[in-house]
Amino acid sequence: MWKGRFAQDTSSLVQQFGESISYDWRLYPHDIAGSIAHARAQKQAGLLTDEEFSSIEKGLKEILADIEAGRFEFKASLEDIHMNVEAELTKRIGAAGAKLHTARSRNDQVATDTRLYCRTEIDLLVAAISELQSALLDRAEKYAATVLPGYTHLQRGQPVTVGHHLLAYVEMLERDKGRLSDARKRLNISPLGSGALAGSTINLDRRAIAAELGFDGVTTNSMDAIADRDYIAEVLFATGLCGVHLSRLSEDLILWCTAEFGFVIFSDAHTTGSSLMPQKKNPDVCELTRGKTGRLVGNLMNLLMAVKGLPLTYNRDLQEDKPPLFDSIDTLKLVLAVNTEMIAAMEIREERALAAASDPMLLATDLADWLVKQGVPFRHAHELVGKAVAESVKTGVQLDQLDLTKIDAAYNDDAKQVFNLQRALAARTNPGSPSIENVKAEIARWRKG
């Protein structure tokens, strides 16, 4: 493609070092769609005859079909997807194929291709996240009234329900969808026509090309259009944070399936055994999810480090944007799919969860609230309950079995009414709180919306 300037062939080692076709081949549908739109604009500008355009369009569609059927041979000597497609087109249709690159550069071509790729993959990721949300909602609905401890510092704190706990992850995933959708809006502008960095003296109808490709508009600065990889960074941030959320869910579930907690049972299909210990049933899906999050976060760092010191506009470093992008998309899609399947088959051991939540210490804060309702200032109420807790620990008598009136005159016999788990949950009616009615209403809202 640059033989006029060079007297020597590119070293085979440099070819191996510089090729990207081994991974950017997957841009082929977007590259071909962009080329057809570009060729149509060339025809409208009088650069191609109707016959030449028809030949180009037909040839590109045939190449698309061959790639999808596995009949196309990608060549590392042609470096990337752009030159592989263009060279094959020229081979098939002759001189008209050599006209296709008029008024564009591989720089604006790849920027277009990756935006189209991100747009398509975001739509698939959002759909996959919705599937996982549906699985979580199904479990939340089944266990809407199943009480278990909520934790802070991994210490039992207050009673919640399994439904409320799982809905927290539905909320997180909704924010992940929002970030991806927001990134999609921002990236959906066409850089095609920006050329290598300064546009072209051959002016094609950029807006018509953008409209054909489904873009909302065109970029307004050719240098920024070529150098910009913000949209990839946004996608990688959104996928990374989604991975972090799934890793946190995994950590909860890993704890819950231990003998010490015993709250959850995973199906045999979503666990593994040990090559040595025959009794083991390991939560490998959760552990791998937690581990793969490091890849997702690392891919974001990879891209940011690649672009942080680049002068405008294109530098070959930008070729390194695609491996982390492709890896994050592939990884998150698989993580979402396997977690959806696992969650859908997951069962909660309700009796174990209830037994853990029946510890009267979980209602210590409710006891302080009761004192507040008797007119005791909260800080003093906190102190009085703390004394009751200390007495319980010291004597080994359960908090709900203590004679609280001996601790302070602020207590009376009615205080023990606090130690009713169902009543305590039912009292948590404020929006966002875990009363069973609230949980059911939230599930219905998610189902509807």
From TrEMBL:
- Family assignment from sequence similarity: Belongs to the lyase 1 family. Argininosuccinate lyase subfamily.
Superkingdom of this entry's organism? Bacteria
Specify the Fumarate lyase N-terminal domain's residue ranges: 4-298
Q: Which organism is this entry from?
A: Luteolibacter luteus
User: Cross-referenced InterPro entries, in alphabetical order?
Assistant: Arg_succ_lyase_C, Argininosuccinate_lyase, Fumarase/histidase_N, Fumarate_lyase_CS, Fumarate_lyase_fam, Fumarate_lyase_N, L-Aspartase-like
Query: What is an annotated GO biological process for this record, any one?
Result: L-arginine biosynthetic process via ornithine
EC supergroup of this enzyme: lyase
Q: What is this protein called?
A: Argininosuccinate lyase
